[in-house]
Amino acid sequence: MSEKNKKQFGVWMDSHHATIVGRENVDSGAFVILGHEKVDGQGSNSSENAANNAERDLLHKLFKNISAHMQNVDELHVTGTGTAQEQFIKYLKETPQYKNVETKDSTSNKMNDESLIEFIASQFN
């Protein structure tokens, strides 16, 4: 499979926000912003256990929302702050339709949309 026909995506994320980048025509064209996803923080919980479960559930909801933008992904570069990108890659590996995705990750501060598009494009050149 040539580089030009691979479905390549990039995601900047932390534990509450994500910006998804992909190609205009799924497998060709310039990279563009496909969407922004956000999960709202949880309210107060009666116990630490309930708080941890709620946080995990919110993160999984974010992962599902991100995945909805990336159908038939071949290559993915995930970047961001904290450990959310590592957890997202683990989530993908445990999801049958994404288990064969070639993933790379890096750490980076929040970028504006244009900078993120340039960064993701440079990862696939």
UniProtKB/TrEMBL annotation:
<protein>
    <recommendedName>
        <fullName>Protein required for attachment to host cells</fullName>
    </recommendedName>
</protein>
